Amino acid sequence: MNRKLLTGNGAAAWGARLARIDYLPAFPITPQTEIIETLSNWIEGQELECRMVTLESEHSMLTAAGAAAVTGVRVFTATSSQGLLYAAEMLYTVAGWRVPLVLVNVSRGLSSPITLEPDHNDVLAMRDCGFLQLHCATCQEVLDNLLIAYRLAEHPRVRLPVLVNLDGFYLSFTREPVQIPSQREVDRFLPPFEAGSISFRGGEPLSEGVTVLEGSAYSYFRYQAHLASLEGIAVYEELGQEFAKLFGWDYSALECYCSEDAEIVLVMIGSFATKAKEAVDRLRETGRKIGLVRPRLVRPFPVAALRQALAGKKGVAVIDQNLSPGKGGILHGELASVLYGTPEAPAVLASFVGGLGGRDISSEEFFEIHKVVQRAVATGITPEPQLLYTEEELRSLRKMQSVARAVRSNQGGGA
Amino acid sequence: MSDTPYQHLRDLPAHHILGTGTPMCAGCGGLATLHQVYDILGEKCVIINAAGCMTLLSVYPCTPFHGSWLYTAMASAPAGAQGVRDGLDILKKKGRLSREEDLEVVVLTGDGSANGMGLSATSGAMDRNLDFLYLCYDNEGYGNTGQQYSAATPHAARTATSKGSLGYPGYKKDLFAIWAAHNPGYVATVVAAEPLDLARKIERARGLSGPRLILALAPCPTGWDFEPSASVEIGKLAVATGIWPLKEYVDGRVTHTKIPHPRLEVRDYLKAQGRFAHLFAPRENRKMIAEIQARVDRYWQKVD
Q1: C-alpha to C-alpha distance for A357 and A393, rounded to whole angstroms
Q2: What are the residue boundaries of the structural domains of chain B, listed by start?
Q3: How many beta carbons lie within 10 A of that of residue B151, not counting itself?
Q4: A57 and B90 in contact by Cβ < 8 A?
């Protein structure tokens, strides 16, 4: 084990390297590019034996990734945002091929307006594609979960591609100390892929992705993929324990922080949950019974664990770094479907949307969220969904607009 | 092309390996092409398919193919070929796949994918000098959805989306030239109605490496509006009128493999198909027919 300062992207590259990937179909996009550059340098320097091919689009990249996985080699690829959506058709398609591969998505807000900074609309747009989704909060988790992701994807009870998500900028470009396990240690956890029946070779013909002409066969395959995905919850827990035995720290589908005795619980995914933890610590210091529950698995969704973790809580605040226009926060809807009708469901399930396009969520806002939920618990009325935006922000945006107008009128243009 | 074993029709494979009873239409020129190509390639290939008529060949749980098959999507079959070729090469290098187990990677798409949304992936595969064979069955329209016009539709043809008196206003995209401009391993045009020429070209393509295109004119009874029994005749007329030049590109040079002499008038080809009926009735559109003839003449003047 070797401790080193790594960015989230660096940790992802290390995870792929230690997983001894055979094949890397690639396409550059901010903020992911550092991952493929790092791997490319290792390949050039013969530190990593892997074939890298830059495709002409992410759609082709995912096609090549899935097609190579059908031959039985270990495949890694990475993208972000627009790239993920450009590849969307192939994410659905490749998941249907039931082949294991790992795709890292470095979250970034979607156009338009076009931005480079993060939120979760990109990855949640792919919520239903059939890939398993692991969401990381720290650089260490990125590395570790890449290794776990290969075990999960290649597990005979799962055999589905896995997406590992990390937030652009906040994680991709932030250096944190990361324990890098030795290759020997990793080899014990992640042996070479035994492809079994997944192979194209002469004398053993195989048809993949064939047409089905009626609903019964279609439903059969879709249900199979769904049931395999659900298996992923138990498999992830098993792997998390096995990981702990070898490396000393464990992983579970849910991270529960101070939530056991909490009355109010924040629910979040991704790196901003570390900000929520900080807010929980500060509120705990003043005697507030607050905690955090963070799903690492978004697909499959750890429904039973969430019900258990949130049973009997007075209020839950779901903080979504995404926005489904016309509805609101996506995770909030997910949580409502998990909790509705269960005997000890919290009476208050409040929705907060924030952190879009790289906007921060400040400690004060976490405190305010706590206050709003506390009030709701007292009245028994869940508040309307709240869009986090401060008056000061609005003032500064207005100022920006008026400056632009002034510049334009000074140049003789219209207002 | 005397270097191939196919000198006479009797040299063509007598054993046919593509299964029968597929859902393709009677008289399908694309299927006839695929039969002939598959007989020569043999079953040690993996077919990477894009959305089109042929996607309906492999319908769960049956397939007419004795070899492997991978359906990708409409836009990215060449990228699928990239992944499979790379995967097989990695396995070979690691000693996990023997030479005997290796497969020829064959992309199979219609003209819609080949000329339209698949062109970016095709061009990319050629940039990377991917070792693969691309078989395009060109039925000159989006056949599987009822023959709407595509970039491969010929001038004046009536399609489901060009039903006016002038037919399709555009001109057929020159996919052969687009491929040749990439300097690939091989490019050839074929038609199932000329099986000896086709067999020689497939055999030649097999012996070469890099990106290789077989562009097959695929007479389509339902889309072009003619009787299924006329499919071979239409294919022969396409060659005899010079509308479909049989040629190949190797090492920077284009060679015509069958120069029609004397060339029949294009009207013989046009008149045989319902998609051009509006050029002959209610009154003959001499100007349009002459324009089509002139374009063909100009092409062959450059060849001669």
Answers
A1: 14
A2: 9-303
A3: 17
A4: no
User: To the nearest whole angstrom, how far is the Cα of B224 from the nearest Cα of chain A?
Assistant: 26
Q: What is the pLDDT of residues B157-197, one digit of tens each?
A: 999 999 999 999 999 999 999 999 999 999 999 999 999 99
User: Is B58 an 8 Å CB contact of chain A?
Assistant: yes
Tell whether A183 lies on the interface with B, counting CB pairs under 8 A: no
**CB contact at 8 A, A387 and A354:** yes
pLDDT band at B1 (very low <50, low <70, confident <90, very high): low
The beta-carbon neighbor of A67 closest among B43, B59, B72 is B72
CB-based burial, A209-219: b 16+ in 10 Å, e otherwise? bbbeeeeeeee
How confident is the model at residue A197, as a pLDDT?
Answer: 83
Q: How far is B289 from chain A (nearest CA, A)?
A: 41
CA-nearest residue of chain A to B58?
A210
Nearest to B111 by CA among B142, B147, B77: B142
Condensed to tens digits (0 to 9), the pLDDT of residues A329-348 reads 999 999 999 999 999 999 99
Q: Rounded to an integer, what distance in angstroms lies between the CA atom of residue A90 and that of residue B79?
A: 11
pLDDT in tens, A150-168: 999 999 999 999 999 999 9
| Residue in B72, B79, B91 closest to A71 by CB | B91
Q: Any chain A CB within 8 A of the CB of B65?
A: yes
pLDDT, position B113: 98
Kindly list the residues from chain A whose CB atom is less than 8 angstroms away from the CB atom of residue B55. 211
Task: Give the CATH number of domain B9-303.
Answer: 3.40.50.970
pLDDT band at B2 (very low <50, low <70, confident <90, very high): low
Domains and CATH numbers, chain A: 2-196+212-247 (3.40.50.970), 254-392 (3.40.50.920)
> Which of A43, A73, A220 has the highest number of chain B CBs within 10 A, making it the mutation to test binding with B?
A73
